[in-house]
Amino acid sequence: MAANNRRMSGKKGAQVGSGGQRRKGLEGKGPTPPAEMRKGHKKNRIAGAKAKQAVRRPAPRGRGGKSTSELVVGRNPVVEALREGVPASTLYVQQFIDNDERVREALQLAAERGGINLMEAPRPELDRMTNGLNHQGLVLQVPPYEYAHPEDLADAAADDGEDPLIVALDGVTDPRNLGAVVRSVSAFGGHGVVVPERRAAGMTAGAWKTSAGTAARTPVARATNLTRALEAYKKAGLVVVGLAADGEVELGELEALAGPVVIVVGSEGKGLSRLVGETCDFRVRIPMPGGAESLNAGVAAGIVLYEAARRRV
């Protein structure tokens, strides 16, 4: 009988009185993931194959009115982009990923928005896609932005029976400044933003986030040559107003803001480039009694747009 007891005590597994050590295994694991994320499911196999093809396919080059697609990498950036409504085409999720709150929220937001493909991919594939960045198992693909043509902005205003109110950015390279300008243009009834094709910020995920969703209804146009685009606006009857710290006209004295106008904002450090400055009909300064040397592009554009909107009421 004693030998019998010794044999029984040598068995592996949970014993009576384990003190709840296996309680974790009985806890719920949250909602069932979508079919594309469930290993062995037919949709999972299809999604995996598509993911490999997408990762290995070379990225398209921007030409004409489109930019190239962009990748948002990392758990926090992906969740924040989805929260802010940044356009997205595909959410890539690493196989066998640690399913924490951010991963669950990303999947939920993507499912709620609809139109976002869910792709499961092995870690090596995501490493290649992101060039070795710390993606943490989440990668969001933002589709190419479709830029308008500068003429489209003035034409849209004419179609609405309004005088065009447009902002052009000269040498502004921070996407957050572009997003802030887009938001101000939307808030004060403007008709769009023009950016140069080269050496300038474009409509990236960062710009979309800063615009707080207004980029969905405020067009951004891209000009091959900003000086020529401004000259075309002048021929169409618009007044070109450049902001400069040493401008000859003070903002409150500028009557042109009540009519068709293009407001040109330069970079915070260099201001307007020489050719763009020479193209402007007026160089305007914003009075700053506090003594600040300059304002960033987003703030400066917001002040002038407010003044223009006030005069148009």
Overall strand count:
11
| Quaternary structure state of the chains depicted | single chain
Net shape: elongated
Return the string of H and E elements. Answer: HHHEHEHEHEHEHEHEHEEEHEH
> Share of helix among residues?
25-40%
Spans where pLDDT lies below 50 across 5 or more residues: 5-9, 49-64
Structural class: alpha/beta
Widest beta sheet: strand line-up: 7-6-5-10-8-11-9
What is the residue-averaged pLDDT?
Answer: 83
What's the Cα radius of gyration? 27 Å
Features:
single chain, 313 residues, alpha/beta, 7-stranded parallel sheet, 4-stranded mixed sheet, 11 strands
How would you describe this protein?
The protein is elongated, with a radius of gyration of 27 Å. It has a seven-stranded parallel beta sheet, with helices on both faces. The protein has a four-stranded mixed beta sheet with strand order 1-4-2-3. Helix 3 (42-56) packs parallel to helix 6, helix 4 (75-83) packs parallel to helix 5 and helix 8 runs parallel beside helix 12 (297-312). It has helices spanning 2-9, 23-26, 42-56, 75-83, 101-113, 123-129, 150-159, 175-187, 205-210, 226-235, 274-279, 297-312, and strands at 70-73, 90-94, 117-121, 138-142, 165-170, 192-196, 220-223, 239-243, 249-250, 261-266, 282-285. The protein is of the alpha/beta class and 313 residues long. It has twelve helices and eleven strands.
Summarize the structure.
With 313 residues, the protein is α/β, with parallel strands linked by helices. It has helices at residues 2-9, 23-26, 42-56, 75-83, 101-113, 123-129, 150-159, 175-187, 205-210, 226-235, 274-279, 297-312, and strands at residues 70-73, 90-94, 117-121, 138-142, 165-170, 192-196, 220-223, 239-243, 249-250, 261-266, 282-285.
